[in-house]
Amino acid sequence: MSKVYILVAEDDADDRFLLETAFAENGFKGKLEFVENGVELLDYLRNLKTEDANTEHPLPGFILLDLNMPKKDGREVLKEIKEDPRFKKIPVIVFTTTKNENEINRCYELGANTYVVKPVGFENLVKTIEDIRSYWFSTAQIP
C-alpha cells in the first residue's frame, strides 16, 4: 500500500505553517502537500498518474480546502473535483473561517464531505487536526 498523504489548499503562508506544525504535533509522519490556490490544486490533481496503482503519486487521503483563495476559490474547486470521476471519491474537508449557514449548505450541496470552521488558537487547531485525522484515517470507510 502506498503512503497516505494529505493535500492542503491554503493561500495564507502563516496558516500553512500552523497546519504543518499542528500535524507534526499530532505525530503525523505522512506527507503534507500544499498548494496556494484553486488553480494549483486542480493542476496538481490532473498531473497525478492515477491509472497506475503503483505510481509514486497516488490520490491524497483527503483534501483540506480553504474556501477563500485567489485565482479560483474553494467553491469552484470543490464543484470541479466532485464532478470529475477520477477525483470525486477523494474526501474533501472544507476548512475555512466562514461560519455562514448558507455557505455551509452550499458546500455540502457541491459535494463537501465535511465542513470545519478553522479554530481560534493553536491548541484548538492541534485538537481539530487530531479529530480530523482520527476520523478520516481510523473511523471512516473510504472507497
TrEMBL record:
InterPro entries given in the database record: CheY-like_superfamily, Sig_transdc_resp-reg_receiver, TCS_response_regulator
Keywords: Phosphoprotein
Any matching Pfam family: Response_reg
Response regulatory domain ranges (all copies): 5-133
Modification 4-aspartylphosphate occurs at: 66
Source taxon at top rank: Bacteria
Keyword Ribosomal protein: no
SUPFAM superfamilies given in the database record: CheY-like (SSF52172)
Entries under PANTHER family matching the protein: RESPONSE REGULATOR RCP1, RESPONSE REGULATOR RCP1-RELATED
Name this polypeptide is given: Response regulator
